[in-house]
Design a protein that fits this description.
Elements: H1 3-13, H2 51-56, E1 61-63, H3 68-74, E2 88-91, H4 95-107, E3 112-115, E4 133-136, E5 143-146, E6 151-155, H5 160-171, E7 173-174, H6 185-190, H7 198-201, E8 208-214, E9 220-223, H8 229-238, E10 245-252, E11 254-255, E12 260-267, H9 272-285, E13 290-296, E14 302-308, H10 315-318, H11 320-325, E15 331-337, H12 339-346, E16 369-377, H13 384-396, E17 403-408, E18 433-441, H14 446-464, H15 483-487, H16 491-501
Parallel strand pairs: 2-4, 3-4
Antiparallel strand pairs: 1-2, 5-6, 6-10, 7-11, 8-9, 8-10, 12-14, 12-15, 13-14, 13-17, 16-18, 17-18
Helix pairs in contact: 9-13, 13-14
The structure holds flavin-adenine dinucleotide and 2-acetamido-2-deoxy-beta-D-glucopyranose (4 copies).
One 2-acetamido-2-deoxy-beta-D-glucopyranose binds at residues 443, 445, 447-448, 451.
């Protein structure tokens, strides 16, 4: 493969990070943060004073309005659309410091929001409003692998690429999650977490076996199948800043010591409808070892990319139903590699890069302002009329819509749909596709934003008219959606759990689980 081809393929994959991220040079691999998480010591939580003195009690690093660090870290979110102004940032390195931040928020009646990787589509890691205390979890990157149990316990501040690298290094294992390397495990795991290994290993939420959380009264609880099982139920899909601040997760891990095949096929511009139709038919019967996503854009671009957990020699058979029905591919890239090289490729790096480049724990994003919407589609997908309307509305939005990703969640072999909807908060167990629609504009130009959002809403309504359900994906959070779209038949129980764990609504943002 030529350098040009590699670069092109990498830019395709970076669509998952919105095409805009510039890669860092190599940085050094972080050593273990062992012993950073200290046991709770609530006796130190004395009188609150004012916010400055209260936060200072626990000796965590802080940043207040006016501090250069405050202005810098405020932009440390993926979507720069809102630019909220928090009351303060806290950078805890211990659980006790998280507890103190919660204590101060309650005592002084100030809102609080944990920030994981800052990838919330609506900037909810800054609270979704001005004036919150933002608890930045970046330093929480402890890791401890329990080989016998097949689990790993990790700090909730990890970003996905550093986490994947650490898991590979401890035992050639992984957890299923998204490809964008800078997403935080915190928000990702608490609202789903889908990636190119998910039809075999599940979404990340489904792999949580235990969580440690700081509650509204600033104590620390453990939630697992035996202890506080109701809380674990709620955290698996509805855990983002509604019940408390998760400091640590224990996940089931999966062996990835065997080679993996990454694939990407481009199709002729005018054939989007055929490609989509072939994808729908194939997806319903695809083996669990394959997960894929179809990219479509208003200029007619369309390509299928994904992973197969097996050798490249199987690929023709694995994709046969799709290839039989799709137009002939105009270009293809097939790469069989070990797992960590697969991660490098999907993170936009060269396959020859030193894996330590994946340590993007402190990565700062370039500016992007965007709006995204999602629709969860049930089998068998869109009818012919629906496909036609979808593609024509997409193409009509040529100057205003960025792209659409149709992610394969379901099909009869997918493990995602083998879990009953009432088993945990993540309810969407009848999904074939998750359709994400995305638009972005430059310089926070309000008039361009208005045009783009009008266009994306039009596309969303056009497709929605052909879908049977009314579900959307909570990790593609969208201010315009009601909570019923995210939690469906589990919403009532979530409200009950909210009353139990946070009756004073200490943890809230515009789309958190309400107390009523
Ligand atoms: C470029 C891009 C690509 C993406 N690709 C995918 C993808 O392939 N698959 C997929 O499933 N999703 C994807 N997402 C969506 C992503 O999963 C969500 O945005 C997720 O919520 C991000 O988590 P975060 O920690 O980075 O975000 P944050 O903005 O830090 O957090 C999101 C929410 O979770 C809360 N939260 C964070 N940490 C904690 C904690 N420790 N305890 C309690 N609450 C917490 C925050 O307060 C906030 O409300 C993508 C998003 C972006 C921007
Ligand atoms: C907070 O309290 C301290 C100590 O009493 C005081 O020095 C400081 O000026 C106060 N800060 C604000 C913003 O009120
Ligand atoms: C990230 O930043 C923190 C705080 O500035 C620092 O302590 C840490 O070493 C950095 N980590 C990496 C991997 O650079
Ligand atoms: C903002 O967007 C409008 C509409 O697309 C465009 O005409 C205008 O030139 C843009 N302004 C700036 C400053 O980019
Ligand atoms: C704090 O909240 C937890 C969970 O709701 C509860 O079990 C515990 O008793 C509370 N502790 C105090 C001191 O109120």
């Amino acid at each position: 493969m030529s350098v040009m081809e590699v670069q092109r393929m990498q830019s395709d994959i970076w669509i998952r990070c919105l095409r805009v991220l510039i890669l860092l040079g190599s940085s050094h691999l972080q050593s273990s943060y062992a012993d950073r998480i200290l046991p709770a010591d609530s006796r130190r939580l004395a009188g609150a004073g004012n916010l400055t003195t209260c936060l200072a009690t626990a000796k965590a690093r802080t940043a207040f309005p006016g501090d250069p660090e405050y202005e810098r870290t405020r932009t440390y979110v993926f979507n720069h659309r809102y630019q909220y102004a928090p009351a303060a940032f806290v950078f805890p390195t211990t659980v006790a410091q998280v507890q103190n931040a919660v204590f101060c928020a309650v005592k002084l009646r100030i809102g609080i929001a944990p920030r994981g990787g800052g990838h919330s589509f609506e900037d909810y890691s800054l609270g979704g409003r001005d004036g919150a205390i933002v608890v930045d979890m970046t330093a929480f990157t402890d890791i401890s692998y329990n080989k016998a149990a097949g689990t790993v316990t990790v700090g909730s501040g990890f970003r996905l690429a550093p986490l994947k690298l650490a898991l590979w290094n401890v035992g050639k294992v992984t957890v299923p999650c998204g490809t964008c390397p800078t997403i935080g495990v915190g928000g990702h795991a608490l609202g789903g977490g889908w990636g190119f290994k998910s039809r075999k290993f599940g979404i990340l939420s489904d792999n949580i076996v235990e969580a440690q959380m700081v509650t509204a009264n600033a104590s620390v609880v453990t939630a697992n199948a035996i202890e506080n099982a109701d809380l674990l139920w709620a955290l698996k899909g509805a855990g983002a800043n509604s019940f408390g601040i998760v400091t640590q997760f224990t996940f089931t891990v999966h062996d990835v010591s065997a080679p993996i095949t990454h694939f990407s096929y481009d199709f002729p511009q005018s054939r989007q409808a055929e490609t989509l139709k072939a994808f729908q038919i194939w997806g319903q019967g695809a083996v669990a070892e394959v997960t894929a996503s179809l990219y479509l854009d208003p200029s007619g671009g369309n390509s299928l990319s994904g992973d197969y957990l097996g050798p490249s020699t199987d690929l023709n058979a694995v994709l046969k139903t799709f290839m039989d029905k799709a137009p002939a591919s105009s270009k293809q890239t097939i790469m069989e590699t070990d797992f960590i090289t697969n991660v490098l490729i999907e993170s936009g790096f060269s396959q020859d890069a030193n894996p330590s480049v994946l340590n993007l724990q402190n990565y700062t994003y370039p500016t992007v302002t965007f709006k995204a919407k999602s629709i969860l589609l049930h089998a068998p997908g869109l009818c012919d009329d629906g496909i036609k309307t979808f593609i024509s509305t997409l193409q009509a939005g040529s100057s205003t819509i960025g792209y659409v990703l149709v992610d394969l969640f379901g099909g009869s072999a997918s493990v995602i749909n083998q879990i009953p909807p009432e088993d945990c908060a993540w309810v969407h167990r009848n999904t074939l596709f998750n359709i994400q629609m995305f638009t972005s504009w430059q310089n926070n130009n309000i008039s361009q934003a208005h045009k783009d959002i009008t266009s994306i809403n039009k596309l969303w309504r056009a497709v929605r008219a052909y879908t049977s359900g009314s579900e959307a994906y909570q990790n593609y959070i969208d201010r315009d959606m009601p909570l019923s779209a995210y939690y469906g038949s589990n919403l009532e129980r979530l409200i009950t759990e909210k009353k139990k764990w946070d009756s004073q609504n200490v943890f809230h943002f515009p789309q958190s689980i309400p107390v009523r």
